[in-house]
Specification:
homodimer, 201 residues, alpha+beta
Chain lengths: 201, 201
């Protein structure tokens, strides 16, 4: 029997979502699982929670500016602060869902490329043209991508995925659900791993 | 040369502060350090950050109610949700600072006993009488403790420590500073340990 994938919720504008994205598939694979990537719009989620972007919270915003690159250094991961931060992630998220049903592996490859473009190179992936440029490096047609970003079906899909995430309790990025058990934050991947190993405690 | 203590900021009403308090001294000791406990009033800190108690944040509050006991179980630590939560921690914090200058070891023993009374047994340590009862188990005079809680010098000390914490960037509990390097959250004690081991990365 194939066990259910673990659910990996994130916003493409979240530095900790980026860092988790570098580890989540390997982590899941160590336990015979896959990770289902679910990009969401944290700005929409925040309408439910009343939370604000970290950058707007005094002291905490300063801490995050120091901690995110420090965490990346510890991992040996590329990291730059994009000039545009935080950003709307409608375009990259829609591009991901456009690919997902047809080819999940390619959708995840696009997700990785988009994160790398944004947090590895500082490119503003909120711009549809930039998202299309990134997609083109994977052999996708730029025009096809730009058209997909305006499809009503894709717009509805992202909205529905974000609403489903809120209904599942997701309030931040990254947020991982393993067999119904929720874990919030990049620094909880150790707990995710232990939960997969032990089935809970 | 004795190396400087690591600074351990917390609020007695913080479940993650409690969990960190069970580990911080052993962790510091492994690296030839001590931990200087610094209780603060998070409610006062929140006037600067505009943050709200976790319990008041939709979704995130629910998560914390599930995660804190789960984290305690993983550690094998006693944990109950106190009927009164969160609470004002003026009384236990003042009691700590009253003892600190005269006898730091005893002050920390009181801190541990107060945390255990609150998160291990659910007793409402916001009540001066309860804080005094806990202090009495360490051989301190109840009347002496109750009087100390009303001393202007002690009131001023707690206010000054909380203000100093905000000035140092502290916005949550637990918050650890190692040689000027800040780490927020119980789940970052692994990073604290690695920083102590390596001197930074």
């Amino acid at each position: 029997m194939t066990r259910a994938p673990i659910l990996f919720y994130f916003d493409f504008s979240s530095p900790y979502g980026y860092l988790a994205s570098l580890e989540i598939d390997t982590l899941a694979g160590r336990h015979g699982r896959s990770a289902a990537w679910r990009p969401i719009l944290l700005g929409v989620v925040m309408r439910t929670t009343g939370m604000r972007p970290l950058t707007e919270v005094p002291l905490k915003g300063d801490y995050m500016r120091r901690d995110a690159p420090r965490s990346a250094r510890r991992m040996g991961a590329p990291f730059v602060w994009p000039a545009a931060f935080p950003i709307s992630t409608v375009a990259p998220s829609r591009a991901y869902y456009w690919l997902l049903d047809a080819d999940e592996a390619k959708a995840k490859a696009l997700g990785r490329a988009l994160f790398r473009a944004y947090f590895g190179e500082g490119r503003d992936i909120s711009q549809a043209e930039v998202t299309a440029d990134v997609a083109a490096t994977l052999g996708l047609g730029r025009g096809e991508v730009l058209a997909a970003l305006q499809e009503q079906r894709i717009k509805d899909r992202l909205r529905a995925e974000t609403e489903a995430a809120v209904a599942a309790g997701v309030f931040g990025s990254p947020y991982v659900i393993v067999d119904g058990e929720p874990f919030w934050g990049h620094d909880r991947l150790g707990d995710v791993e232990r939960w997969l190993e032990t089935g809970g405690w």
